[in-house]
C-alpha cells in the first residue's frame, strides 16, 4: 500500500518511480554541476579505466533517489537527513533510450518527534546501484 505523509506507519511504501537517463541528460547534468569527468561522456575513456561504458554521475543517481522522497513529502525542506553508498554504477548506453533507474521507498520507522525514516531502493538493470540509501523526513 502506498501512503501520503499525513498517514504514515512503519512498513508503508512510497509510490514507485521509474526514471530514464540518457546521454543528453548526462551532458545537462555535467553543465549544471560542473562535473566534466570523461567517464560520464567518453566511451573510450570509460573503457580505458575499466568501466563497461559511460556511467551516470553518482550525485545524479542520488538526486533521483532523493526526489522520490521529496515528491512524496511535497517539500524538500522536510528532509532532515539523507545518506547513500554508491554500490554499482548506472551504465548509460548511447542508444537513444539510455538507462532506467527504478526507485522505491519504504518507511522503516516513525518516531514520536514527528519524523520518519524512509529506506530507498534504486535499481538499474535489476541490480542495486545504491546501498543503505535513506532519508529522515518531518511528517508532521
From TrEMBL:
Residues 11-119 form the MaoC-like domain. InterPro entries: Fatty_acid_synthase (IPR003965), HotDog_dom_sf (IPR029069), MaoC-like_dom (IPR002539). It comes from the Bacteria. Pfam families: MaoC_dehydratas. GO terms for cellular component: fatty acid synthase complex. GO terms for biological process: fatty acid biosynthetic process. GO terms for molecular function: fatty acid synthase activity. Belongs to the enoyl-CoA hydratase/isomerase family. This is Dehydratase.
